[in-house]
Design brief:
single chain, about 280 residues
Amino acid sequence: MNLFTAAETTANYANAGVAKSKLPISKMLWMGILAGFLIGFPSCVTNIATYALDNNSTIRMTSGLLFAFGLGTIILSGAELFTGNTLITISVLEKKVKVQDMLRNWLFVYIGNFIGSMLLSAICAYFGWLSAGSNALAVYSMKLATGKMTMPFQNAFFMGVLCNILVTLGVMFSLSGKDGISRFIGAWVPVMFFVTCGFNHSIADMTYCMLGLFAKNVPAYVESANAAGIALDSLTWGNYITGNLIPVTLGNIVGGVLIGCTMWFAHLRKSGNQA
């Protein structure tokens, strides 16, 4: 077979989680920054591919088809993505990693992801990329960001839960492959599902939201937004933190831990390794 079984994949991840938890902080940060870029690039791709479209279903399907390639680039490059690393729960349940070491990984990888997303967003906003379509791309990015950071807390939370159920399944499906094509397709399908459905991914939303936040600092983009009748009063860092960053991150943690616990319970607990 060209695939690992689900049990083998879960056991392999339990060992991979050990290696992840032992990474030096500097490597967690650097590989986290890389993952921030690698998830940020598909966010930019979907914005520029859809900013001139009007039909919501077409926008979502186009975004899903394109964005979904991002997770495969992260897995194949060895970058560290916070949402995928919620699966280190498997290693903790196998008693191979301590909870504090898992949390240490989550913290520094998350910081790295944020830095990478912020750098990419700032470059795109301040060096002309958002000027496409006579600033229409900037207007679209600000409108999208506003929508993401003004969802009710509970909506953002549960959309985060559903998102990371699919993302972590994508990680597991990818790692079940023994060749590059299998690993890419395994990651692609669940991610395509979550993006098409409009669920929320905390790291991708970093780029989506910060593109809008940085664009708001460029007078020409604000002028174009005003001319288009787009209100920017809600496009603030405070709304981003409380309306998106916190609830979506918490939801992603819950979704990822649920899959980690499910895979461990189904495939490792019954092996006799646990009491």
